[in-house]
Design a protein that fits this description.
Structural class: alpha+beta
Distance between the termini: 24 Å
Strand order of the largest sheet: 5-4-6-7
Number of strands: 10
Helix content: 40-55%
Radius of gyration: 23 Å
Length: 348
Amino acid sequence: MSILIFLLILGVLVMAHEAGHFLVAKLNGIRVLEFCLGMGPQLVKFKKGETVYSIRLFPIGGACMFDGEDGNVEGGGPGDEHCFNNASVWARIATVVAGPICNFILAFLFSVIIVNFSATDLPIITQVTEGGAAAEAGILPGDEIVSVNGEKVHLYREVQVISQLNRGEAYEMVLSRDGELIEVTFSPKYDEQEGRYYMGLAGAVYEEFRGLDSLKYGFYEVRYAAVSTYKSLLQMIQGQVKTEDMAGVVGIANMVGETYEAVKPAGWQYVLLTMMNLAAILSVNLGIINLLPLPALDGGRLVFLAVEVVRGKPVPADKEGMVHAIGFVFFMVLMVFLVFNDIRNIFF
């Protein structure tokens, strides 16, 4: 059941991503040769119009293959207006960026549903540790955290992420107390046993939101996932993430399975909302990672398209294709590494 749930989540996220590419390509008259889920040999396929729809052997990823892109040419050519490379540069930019945007839209829809059927954690302090940094700064239970170091806060989870990533830096915090804004500055205290810095406070107050409010807090949920992903990537670039903290497809599948087993006793409704929340977070992750300016990713293709806008002419297709091919090999090697890393973390 855990594996089936993981494959279902992955399939929905990939389908949403590729559907974004597909729909915008069609709107711009670009010929789509194949819309597929998975990688490797085709298991099931059928053709409708000019597009082959298929499911491939390995249920990881997917693709929307355009006529004329990366050497994929079927009946088209330099003079064929339906070839990807012959479409206007802005049509191609819209087609490429549509995939990640659809991931953000899907995450927002899931988040709105979750907010409507569960309570949201507001950044209201419920407990202040005696002798802790927050208590010494004069922070009281009932204070609502408005911002931390200039960063607006809407969910208590955002405060937790800021605290977890702190390396001893001082906090500049804006609080709301009885309708009045208060500014406090304090440094967290280091816990030798836990090996990290603590603010010395806890929350949150949970409140239910419906209707238009659910749209607002659904947006905050997506924002939280996006900021958390960005900060995690920044930590990785800075070398602050250990190898055992990284997870690939096996690690994510294992996390989904553990989460499912943990919430299963609470009933199918709770399982559904929890899995939907995981899907929303992973969808935001997928959208952001695909926008990174790296070869073989949507962000890498956007870099070449941006160069075309500036130069007024495209980069030669063979050179761009070579760069993306090298990027694809790199990501395949990275995926294999992460699979072995996941197996080591899970079983050893």
